[in-house]
From TrEMBL:
It comes from the Bacteria. Residues 1-20 form the signal peptide. This is Uncharacterized protein. Keywords: Signal.
C-alpha cells in the first residue's frame, strides 16, 4: 500500500503592514509530492522533505524594513503539542539582498504522524514606521497553507491486467506516478513508490526506462527502482527525449540536441543548429526525426547533419513513434500520419480524428500504433488506421507513452 499525506492548499494572505516582512511562498518541493496536493509519505520510516520559503520586506522612509523572524516547520494535531519538524531558522535584515530572501528548510516527518497538519510557524518582532521595535515581545503566526494528513488506498490493477503483457509505460501526472499497461487488454496499474512529479520526458533503452524529472535524469527498472544518472539539475527546460539502437539517449534541451551516455550521463552537443520549440523526437535506422518549429527534420544521430524531410506543415505535433518498419507515425492536427523515413512521403491513416491526443502519447509495439487520447488507450492498425479501444476509460492525462 502506498501512503500519502493529502494536502489542502489554501492561498496565502498575510498582513503587509505590521510584521516588518511578509511570507510570499511556502511550498514543499515537487520531488517530495505524490501529486500537487500530497506529500509522499514513507509508511514504515521517517519522511524527509524540503520546503521552499520566500520572505519579502518593503521600503520605508528609513530604508528597507528591519526584520527579526524565527521560522519552523511544524506538525499540528488536536490534543497534541506542536511537533517541530525542522530546526528553527532565525532571520534578520542582514540575511536579505534587497527586498526579498529565498531559502530552503529541511524537515522530517516522523513515522505514523497522521490526522494533523504540516504548516510553517513563525515568530517576529513588531517595528514602527521609523524602524524601532514596538516591543521586545515576539508575536506568533502560522501560514494559511496547511498540509492535512490522510492515508488513501492505492487502487488495484484494472481489469484484464497481465504482468506478462505490461509492455507499455507512461506517466500519470494526475497521481504523479508511473503506470504500466497490458498492451493486449489495456489493463493498467501504478508501479514503484518514487514520486514522479512534473515529468519532462521519458524513453526506454536496454530494459530500462530513462526519465527526465525535476531537471534530473533517472534510470528506472520495471518495478520502479531508480538511480540518478549524471550531473544533478542540468536538464531544466527539456523538450523531448528518445533513445537509439546505437545505445545512446538523445535529449533536446535549451534548443540543443544532447547525445547522452545512459551509464554515466556524460553528453556531447550534436551539431550546431538550434532546435527551439521541438514538439517530438524519435530515432530510427541511424537518424533522429524531429518535429520542430512546424517542420519535420531528419538528423544524423552521430554527426548532427540534417535535412528537412518534406515540405508539409507539422506544427502542433502531439506525438510521434518510429515503427522499426521504415515509417514514422505522427499525430498532428488531429490526424494520424504515416511518414516514409527515406522519402518523406506521407499519408493519413484512416478517417478517424485524434484531437487532443495526450502529450507525447504515441508509441509503436507489436506491429501496431498505440495512442493515448480521450481518456482511453487505443491500438491502431498501422496500415488502415482502424482501431480498438483497450481497457476502461482510465487514461485521463496520461502521457509520454513508451514501450519497454
Amino acid at each position: 500500500m502506498k501512503n500519502y499525506y493529502l494536502v489542502l492548499l489554501v492561498a496565502l494572505f498575510f498582513s503587509t503592514n505590521t510584521k516588518a516582512a511578509n511570507i510570499t511562498k511556502f511550498i514543499i518541493q515537487s520531488q517530495f509530492l505524490s501529486n500537487s496536493t500530497s506529500l509522499n509519505v514513507k509508511p514504515t520510516e521517517k519522511t524527509p522533505f524540503n520546503v521552499d520559503v520566500t520572505l519579502t520586506r518593503d521600503l520605508k522612509s528609513y530604508g528597507y524594513e528591519n526584520v527579526d523572524w524565527i521560522l519552523t516547520v511544524v506538525f499540528q494535531k488536536n490534543g497534541e503539542p506542536d511537533l517541530e519538524l525542522s530546526t528553527p531558522k532565525a532571520i534578520n535584515g542582514n540575511d536579505f539582498i534587497g527586498g526579498f530572501m529565498d531559502f530552503t528548510v529541511n524537515a522530517t516527518l516522523p513515522v505514523g504522524k497522521t490526522g494533523g497538519v504540516v504548516i510553517l510557524k513563525y515568530s517576529y518582532i513588531f517595528y514602527n514606521n521609523e524602524g524601532v521595535p514596538i516591543s521586545n515581545s515576539r508575536s506568533i503566526g502560522v501560514t494559511n497553507t496547511s498540509y492535512k494528513a490522510s492515508i488513501p488506498v492505492t487502487p488495484p490493477p484494472s481489469a484484464g491486467f497481465n504482468i506478462q503483457n505490461a509492455r507499455l509505460f507512461m506517466a500519470n501526472p494526475s497521481g504523479y506516478d508511473l503506470r504500466k499497461a497490458d498492451y493486449l487488454s489495456g489493463g493498467q496499474r501504478n508501479f514503484g513508490e518514487q514520486v514522479w512529479a512534473n515529468i519532462q520526458g521519458m524513453t526506454s533503452l536496454n530494459g530500462y526506462l530513462y526519465v527526465v524529472q525535476a531537471n534530473n535524469l533517472h534510470k528506472v527498472d520495471k518495478e520502479g527502482n531508480f538511480t540518478l544518472i549524471g550531473e544533478l539539475g542540468i536538464w531544466k527546460n527539456t523538450e523531448a527525449v528518445t533513445s537509439s539502437t546505437n545505445g545512446y539517449l538523445y535529449i533536446v534541451q535549451n534548443s540543443r540536441i544532447h547525445k547522452v551516455d545512459p551509464t554515466t550521463g556524460t553528453y556531447s552537443i550534436l551539431g550546431n543548429p538550434e532546435w527551439a520549440n521541438t514538439d517530438a523526437i524519435v530515432a530510427y535506422n541511424g537518424y533522429l526525426f524531429l518535429a520542430e518549429n512546424g517542420y519535420l527534420y531528419k538528423v544524423n544521430e552521430n554527426t548532427g547533419t540534417y535535412i528537412q524531410l518534406n515540405d508539409a506543415e507539422w506544427a502542433g505535433t502531439q506525438g510521434m513513434a518510429s515503427g522499426a518498419d521504415g515509417w514514422i507515425y505522427v499525430v498532428q492536427n488531429g490526424y494520424l500520419h504515416r511518414v516514409n523515413a527515406e522519402s518523406g512521403a506521407f499519408e493519413v491513416l484512416g478517417g478517424h480524428e485524434w484531437p487532443n491526443t495526450n502529450i507525447k502519447g504515441v508509441a509503436f509495439y507489436d506491429n501496431s500504433v498505440y495512442i493515448l487520447q480521450n481518456y482511453s488507450l487505443h491500438r491502431v492498425n498501422k496500415v488502415t488506421g482502424a482501431f480498438t479501444v483497450l481497457g476502461n476509460r482510465e487514461y485521463s492525462n496520461s502521457c509520454h507513452l513508451t514501450v519497454l
